[in-house]
Amino acid sequence: MENFAAVEKALRTAAPHELVDIVTAALADHYGARRTQLRLADYAMRSLQAVEPVPLVTEPVPVNGSPQGRAFGAQEPVVTQDPDHGAVEVHLPVTVRGGRMGVLSVTLPENAYTAAVLPEIQHICEVLGHEILVAERDTDLYDLARRAARLTLAAEMQWQLLPGRSCSRPEFSLGAHLEPAYAIFGDNYDWSASAEHLTLTVTNGMGEGIEAALLTNLAVNALRNARRAGLDLQGQAMLADQAVHAQYHGRAHVAVLLLRFDIATGEVEAIDAGSPRLWRLRDGTVDPIPFEQQLPLGMFEDTVYTPQRFTVRPGDRLLIGSDGVYDAASPSGARYGERALARSLTGTRLLPPTQVPGAVLHELAGHHGEVPLEDDALVVCLDWHGRPDGEHRD
């Protein structure tokens, strides 16, 4: 592990834009690597884009149907042989706390590759992922690599709000995705986990473009402000409601579903203040979880919100869909509907939660065909594992 320690130190002291160069040089020195390339997943999660200075000239590779894509999807190393050049190419996922970022591809001489090399390079990938998260504060290099097309200004604002696209802990795993990725309107999601609780929110600000992005930014930051001030779920909803109403005086509002999970017991507090809906897959059966629908945030002054409760068990899968999913229209005008969404949830039951949102939205794309989506389509998938010593009640 001496090689790993040296590379880790070099990465931690490198300039933000030099991380790939540091890894390339280190892998060449310590393992004889002939070539190293870092690719990051684009916003639509359809391609892996090379990290390189502008102008970006390297062609992307698809997530589906490429060795790099297999490593990204399976979150496991993929090794391919190139006997004509006496080389082995290793593709390793770059992931931080369950958040899938991209893939590091390393070309090694055949005589330098052994199975013992993989763990060290995987450790390097972990450190690289952490350092990219830090470096992104000071450089656009990695953000540019995620763009297969130009973002609208509204989408730029919305993506900056998101916590990531996946998160994993021993007690739960979740994944989320927004579509269309490059021209988002007002949909958003947020999560935060502490030692005892997971808070998950899905929001849908009315309107389009910059107006929707500004509204959603206000609501999400108001919810975060209340959560970080230590308010309970009811207090979070009421503070955000007041913030939106104070700014818009009822002319604009935000639909939101707020969930707060007790990690030890699986008990969940929920406030349904709008359109996002929740389904549960348990023991092979899909059921909607109904709530008493309350007023969207900002519609009236001093609205009082009342939490409702339900419980999740280990093995449960929850799926949240925005109205842009279940109300999406086909070319004939038929709505996608809750029944189709339930079928999609059943059909993706063997996929990890990080891949479920993309699979659901792929099926949705087949439904609406060439007809552009009239609204954002947002899907969040949560697998609940629980704690071995937790108490779980129906």
From TrEMBL:
Matches recorded under InterPro entries: Bact_Sigma-Reg, PPM-type-like_dom_sf, PPM-type_phosphatase-like_dom
Residue ranges annotated for the PPM-type phosphatase domain, each copy included: 169-384
Keyword vocabulary terms for this entry: Hydrolase
Pfam entry (one): SpoIIE
Molecular-function GO terms, alphabetical: phosphatase activity
PANTHER family per UniProt: STAGE II SPORULATION PROTEIN E, STAGE II SPORULATION PROTEIN E-RELATED
Designated name of the protein: Magnesium or manganese-dependent protein phosphatase
Species of origin: Streptomyces pristinaespiralis (strain ATCC 25486 / DSM 40338 / CBS 914.69 / JCM 4507 / KCC S-0507 / NBRC 13074 / NRRL 2958 / 5647)
